[in-house]
Every structure is written in structure tokens, then in C-alpha cells.
Design brief:
The chain is mainly alpha-helical. 76% of the residues lie in helices and 0% in strands.
Length: 210
């Protein structure tokens, strides 16, 4: 009785103990940066060639193509590029439909204000959202996530105010130049400045037992 019980169903259960499904492919970081920066560079070039309305249309198409490439290469799209793309589609469509470039100029204000409000609001409800934004790039202590969330939340709010000051104070071409060649270096410099904080609060993987 015992022998027949162990020999029957055993082979059927073997596949459950087999290897796990292959991990999702990871995108090269430089390629990821290129896909995020590329639409902005095309926006700048199209504005120089045909004006803000041509630039807006090119920006919308390039943004959708970049999202599609992210999905093909990594089988997922990070939160920030997705939200930013949705706002681009809405405000870009309004810009072209109403022939009013105020909408595309408001887009960075809305995106930054939204990110800042979500980060600080999530922290207020004891739900830090930076782990989702960084998408597993680092693993920090609770205090590390709290401090990093506050810093990025305030940074996004400051950038929202800065965009408002710039687009209301300078020409369209100057604003496009700021959006392309000013916003990204400022963001990159701020991100690099957070490295010491992340290093102090990084959780190291525990060594596996022998």
C-alpha cells in the first residue's frame, strides 16, 4: 500500500519544483536615459526648425515611441515616464487643438507639482513612494526612504515653481532651451547629490549561510 502510494502521483508533481520562470529583462541604464532624453532633444530640434507647434507634435510622437521601446526591451514601463507621457499627451493635444503654447509650457509645472505632491502626500500617510519610483535600484532603511522622499518631493515642487518663473519671463525659444538643456542637468546634479544619503542608509544583503 505504501509503495503504490509513493510511486503513482510523484512524477506529476515534479514540474512544480522545476526552475522558476525567467526574470524580466533589465534595460541598459544608458539606453534608458537615452530613451528618456531623446524626445526632449527632438523637441528642441523641431522647435528650432518649425516652431513650438511642430515641436509639440514631434515630442508627442517621440514620447510614445520611447514608451513602446521601453516596453519591448524591459516588458514594463516605470511610473515616472508613464505619468509624464500621459501629461504630455493631454497638454500636447490641447496645445495643438487650441493653437495655444501655454499648455505645453505648463506641462513641466504640472508633472513636477504632481510628483512632489504624491511623494510628500504618500509620506504623510506613512506610504513612501520613492521605492516605486526608483524601481528596485537601491534598498534603503525606512529612515533613508523617508529622508530621500522629502528631498525629492521638495525638489519637484521647486522645479515646478522654477518652470513657472522661466516660461512666464522669457521667450518660447529660451524656455525650450531651458527645458532641454537646463532641467536635465539640474535634475542629474540633484540626483548625484543624494548619493551620500543613499550610501549611509543602504541595506546590505545578508550573507548566505554555508
Amino acid at each position: 500500500m505504501t509503495g503504490s502510494k509513493t510511486s503513482g502521483p510523484q512524477p506529476e508533481s515534479a514540474p512544480a519544483a522545476g526552475p522558476e520562470a525567467p526574470a524580466r529583462p533589465k534595460m541598459n541604464p544608458w539606453l534608458k536615459i537615452g530613451l528618456e532624453v531623446g524626445p526632449l532633444v527632438l523637441f528642441f530640434a523641431a522647435n528650432a526648425r518649425g516652431g513650438i507647434y511642430m515641436a509639440t507634435g514631434v515630442f508627442m510622437v517621440a514620447t510614445l515611441l520611447a514608451l513602446g521601446a521601453m516596453w519591448v526591451l524591459a516588458r514594463r514601463i516605470a511610473v515616472m515616464p508613464l505619468v509624464s507621457a500621459l501629461v504630455v499627451m493631454v497638454f500636447g493635444s490641447l496645445t495643438l487643438w487650441l493653437q495655444d503654447d501655454h499648455f505645453i509650457k505648463l506641462k513641466p509645472t504640472m508633472v513636477n507639482a504632481l510628483f512632489g505632491a504624491l511623494l510628500l502626500g504618500g509620506l504623510a500617510f506613512k506610504k513612501p513612494l520613492m521605492p516605486y519610483v526608483l524601481d528596485g535600484m537601491v534598498n534603503l532603511t525606512d529612515e533613508g526612504w523617508r529622508q530621500l522622499t522629502i528631498r525629492w518631493g521638495l525638489f519637484f515642487l521647486v522645479m515646478a515653481v522654477l518652470n513657472e518663473v522661466v516660461w512666464r519671463s522669457v521667450s518660447t525659444d529660451t524656455w525650450v532651451m531651458f527645458k532641454t538643456f537646463g532641467y536635465l542637468p539640474i535634475t542629474f546634479a540633484f540626483a548625484v547629490a543624494q548619493a551620500p544619503l543613499m550610501s549611509r542608509h543602504e541595506l546590505k544583503d545578508a550573507p548566505e549561510p554555508n
